[in-house]
Amino acid sequence: AAAGYSTGGLTRLMKEAAFRQELLAGAGLAAAYAIMDVTAAIRLAAAVLFLLLVAMEAVNTAIEEIIDRISPEVSDTGKHAKDLGSLAVFCLISANSILLLHALAIELTT
User: Any idea what the CATH number is for the domain that residue 16 is in?
Assistant: First the structure.
């Protein structure tokens, strides 16, 4: 049952343009890390950060869906919930970017 729910969630998430862009960016990051031949620790950190980003994008989408369902009118509370979910996604995008910059710095100094 859980696998079915997860598949349904992934199918729903694929409808989000932001998620599709994050998947493309993730593929680009994977290619960049492969070209740079980074350490196993950086590869692991990159994989974990990317999976956290996917998870947070799913949570953010769930928040948006719930807010739109229970509060279709514009409200400060609904706006705050959506803004906070968006901030969480932004923080993980930033963490992925910081790791890439770290890997680039290592690559350029060795």
Answer: 1.10.287.3610
Is residue 64 annotated as involved in ligand binding? yes
Q: Show the domain range for 16.
A: 1-109
pTM of the model: 0.93
pLDDT per residue as tens digits for the range 95-106: 999 999 999 999
pLDDT, one tens digit per residue, over 18-35 is: 999 999 999 999 999 999
With cut-offs at 50, 70 and 90, classify the pLDDT of residue 58.
very high
Selected catalytic residue, list 57, 65, 73, 107: 57
Pick the closest to residue 54 from 99, 84, 24, 98 (CA basis). 24
The rounded distance, in Å, linking the Cα atoms of 100 and 110 is 16
Overall domain count for the chain: 1
Asked if residue 68 belongs to a known ligand binding site, the reply is no
97 annotated as a binding-site residue: no
- What does DSSP assign to residue 15? T
Annotated catalytic, 57?
A: yes
Query: Positive or negative, the Cα torsion across 24, 27, 29, 32?
Result: negative
